[in-house]
Write a structure and sequence with these properties.
This protein has about 625 residues and is of the alpha+beta class. The chain has 25 helices and 15 strands. The protein is elongated, with a radius of gyration of 54 Å.
């Protein structure tokens, strides 16, 4: 045996070993220490040789006594002890102590030291992770590459209702709602292929059958080939979001309907708008409005979500007295909303049943439309979700029915008002014409004068682009402009010769007399003022007040031109008719001097297009 070779071999191992090696005597004195042991213990070999085994081992370590006993009994001891560095710090180490005899036969102990600090730290971190995983209030799970559960924490088990044993090794997709499985599979494939982390949602079926909407955050660890995931139950949050969105949609719908109430002109138009506005809001798949007939039946007048054939089927079903109309008739009779299941409301009518099935109708709600004390009809809603008496949607339906009632009442009041105003207008015009004819009876030579002036004046106003209300006023003023002549003796009005100055002064007083008669009456036009001014002229040469320019009202300026043209075109007791041509010559030659230029131009255009049968 080559003793020197083996001596060198073991010396090399001793010097270069990554583990620390101490040689000690039976009494624990350190005889030698390799470089690794020196580094671990933070001392030089010379320092260690001056120490004993008890100086580098924590004597309070509970494992020490057991290790010494085992070493004494078997000559070998393997354990973990706490060692002390030169700076006083401690670290865990795996110790293997073996008794051997040197060349002289003296017993010695070889102590191999392996620093367990890093391993212990890893174990501690793992323990902390496991403790965090199990005690976390967030549901967590770990899945293998095949999507099967490897671990689940207590929160996950509590959330789903399954025990950990019932979940481990089961495919994750087994618990996903079938309709969501393909999308979830695609998400998981994308995670593995493209990105390590992702967020997704799916519906998860619990042990008790409850379906939860879960929001997942998952991370694929390529090193361990597993997926770590946390889940969060967002069912209540999503329900609240959907409820808020539903309420927002409802409020927008109500606002649209309320805005339309201001512009609706006919009841049928209002009914159609409401049905169209409701359709699609709050999962409403259909809506129709029916009016109550004298026979206490319901006649559909508008619908959305139904075609014309189905609407006709609704009418036919009612005429036959079939069950689908019963909830609506109950709503009319009881004057309150009536809710029924789709089967209850539509089951007796094949057409309705087929449509309700196709549209996935859950609830049919019939809400009466009450105008003051009269229930005029009902609004019928087909909803694709259950509606209960406490549902906010029911209050929405009631509010819409109330809005319809307000709109109907407004339209009917508007029609009544329009009819009343027309009656008053007709009565006013009849009175005005009667007064004009009364004036004409005192002067048969001017019969029809007031009517023709009224027609010509209104035609001039139309040509000038005046509003309809102003044109109507010109017609009234034209009929009444000579009302003051009622105070002039008939023999003066029909005198065939020239009037004396006193008679002329009397005739020229008729604008003021007419004004005094009319000034106390309320017209929507300046009738009295125009009657007073219709003989005024732009240059101030008219009467009675010699007004000039814009001081004369527009109505008076128009009547002045119409009166002049009509008077010159017709016979008078004191002269024959001068004709339309002469009348037009009069107003055009004095355009801007006596007569308003814009009025003259409009009059000429009117008579060019239509001479109004004014006599030549």
């Amino acid at each position: 045996m080559n003793f020197e070779f083996y001596k060198d071999f073991y010396q090399s191992i001793f010097s270069h070993s990554a583990d620390g090696v101490l040689l000690t005597s039976p009494d624990g004195q350190i005889l030698a220490a390799n470089p690794a042991a020196c580094r671990m213990l933070g001392r030089t070999e010379e320092e260690l040789r001056r120490l004993g085994r008890s100086d580098v081992v924590d004597t309070s370590d509970p494992h020490l006594a057991t290790a010494l006993a085992e070493h004494a009994r078997n000559g070998v001891a393997r354990t973990e002890l706490t060692l002390i560095r030169g700076d006083g710090s401690r670290f865990p180490a795996e110790i293997t102590a073996t008794v051997f005899h040197d060349g002289n036969g003296s017993p010695q102990t070889s102590v191999i030291i392996r620093d367990n600090s890093e391993r212990r730290q890893l174990e501690l971190e793992r323990e902390q992770y496991v403790r965090f995983f199990q005690l976390s209030t967030d549901p967590m799970c770990i899945a293998d590459p095949f999507g099967c559960f490897k671990h689940v924490n207590q929160a996950f088990a509590k959330l789903t209702g399954y025990t950990a044993d019932e979940l481990i090794s089961r495919p994750f997709l087994d618990f996903v709602l079938p309709e969501d499985r393909q999308r979830t599979t695609d998400e998981m494939k994308l995670q593995v292929a493209v990105r390590p982390s992702l967020h997704f949602e799916n519906r998860y079926v619990c042990k008790n059958g409850q379906v939860l909407l879960l929001s997942w955050t998952a991370y694929f660890d390529k090193t361990d080939n597993v997926t770590y995931a946390t889940a969060r139950d967002i069912s209540a949050q999503r329900e609240l979001e959907e409820k808020n969105q539903r309420i927002s949609d409802i409020l927008r719908c109500v606002r649209r309907i309320n805005e339309h109430l201001l512009v609706a002109r006919e009841e049928d138009e209002l009914y159609r708008f409401v049905c169209n506005a409701l359709s699609g809001v709050d999962r409403i798949v259909g809506a129709w409005i029916g009016l109550k007939t004298p026979e206490a039946m319901v006649r559909p007048v508008a619908a959305a979500g139904f075609d014309i054939a189905l609407l006709q089927a609704l009418q036919d079903g009612q005429d036959q007295g079939t069950e689908p109309w019963e909830p609506t008739r109950r709503a009319l009779h009881e004057r309150k909303p009536v809710m029924a299941s789709s089967a209850e409301a539509n089951g007796a009518s094949p057409a309705l049943h087929e449509a309700a099935t196709r549209l996935a109708v859950e609830t049919v709600v019939s809400v009466p439309i009450q105008v003051e004390d009269d229930v005029i009809g009902a609004m019928v809603i087909w909803s694709a979700r259950p509606v209960s008496a406490s549902d906010e949607s029911l209050q929405f339906f009631v509010e819409v029915a109330g809005d319809i009632a307000v709109g109907v009442r407004s339209l009917r009041l508007s029609r009544q008002l329009t009819t009343t105003l027309k009656s008053l207008h007709d009565a006013l015009m009849a009175t005005v014409e009667a007064i004009a004819k009364l004036v004409e009876t005192r002067d048969p030579y001017t019969a029809g004068h007031e009517h023709r002036v009224a027609e010509l004046a209104s035609a001039i106003g139309l040509r000038m682009g005046l509003p309809a209300q102003s044109i109507e006023g010109l017609r009234v003023i034209g009929h009444l402009h000579d009302l003051g002549k009622i105070s002039i003796p008939a023999e003066i009005l029909s005198k065939p010769t020239r009037l004396s100055p006193i008679e002329m002064e009397l005739v020229q007083s008729h604008p003021e007399v007419g004004y005094e008669i009319l000034k106390g009456l309320e017209f929507p036009w300046p009738v009295a003022q125009a009657v007073l001014q219709h003989h005024e002229r732009l240059d101030g040469s008219g009467y009675p007040n010699r007004l000039q320019g814009d001081a004369i009202s527009l109505e008076a300026r128009i009547i002045a031109v119409a009166d002049t043209v009509e008077a010159m075109s017709t016979h008078r007791p004191y002269r024959p008719a001068r004709g339309l041509a002469a009348a037009l010559e009069e107003i055009t030659s004095h355009r801007g001097q006596l007569y308003d230029p814009a009025v003259v131009d409009a009059c000429v255009a009117v008579l060019k297009d239509n001479p109004l049968q004014l006599p030549e």
